[in-house]
Amino acid sequence: MSEPDERPAEPGRPAPRPDTGPMRFFSGPPGPTPPPGTPLSAPPPAAPGFAGDRQPAAPVPPPRPHGDARPAGEQGGTGVEGRIAIEDAVVARIAELAALDVRGVVALSAPPGDGDGGVRVRTRDDEVTLDLGIVVAYGSVIRDVAGAVQENAARMAGLMLGMRVAAVNVSVEDVRRPPA
């Protein structure tokens, strides 16, 4: 390590600053450093005397199944009784949009045995099965695109509906050049 430059400033050049030198990239908050091997997502250890101040997080209730009709008292709602129904067309639209979000999908096409569009929905109890027919962009790896469609459709349907997705069946019906 070299010492700071003690030379006087040359005409036309500013004098060297005494605080120059290597700077830390990230200083982090002041306080004790966690021991090695501690996951970054782990909460910091409680300071002495404050351990009793923290309240445990309230448990989150599991999501309600599709079309679940329970009294509002059991739902934790506003006290209004009633039923929530999600139409199959909404489930199909969620799956369609999730499939179209995948890079390499040009369009949806009717899966085998269905002439009504690119998605068929089957609901049983609290789970859903999706059948999707897709058109893949020329030059894409078809199995990779179809696998990504399965994953994205299952993830989005599960998140948005609060239901278990039993299966996502993907049928590649055509290959086309993507639109310009």
TrEMBL record:
<feature type="compositionally biased region" description="Pro residues">
    <location>
        <begin position="29"/>
        <end position="47"/>
    </location>
</feature>
<feature type="compositionally biased region" description="Basic and acidic residues">
    <location>
        <begin position="1"/>
        <end position="10"/>
    </location>
</feature>
<comment type="similarity">
    <text>Belongs to the asp23 family.</text>
</comment>
<dbReference type="InterPro" id="IPR005531">
    <property type="entry name" value="Asp23"/>
</dbReference>
<dbReference type="Pfam" id="PF03780">
    <property type="entry name" value="Asp23"/>
</dbReference>
<feature type="region of interest" description="Disordered">
    <location>
        <begin position="1"/>
        <end position="79"/>
    </location>
</feature>
<feature type="compositionally biased region" description="Low complexity">
    <location>
        <begin position="48"/>
        <end position="57"/>
    </location>
</feature>
<protein>
    <submittedName>
        <fullName>Asp23/Gls24 family envelope stress response protein</fullName>
    </submittedName>
</protein>
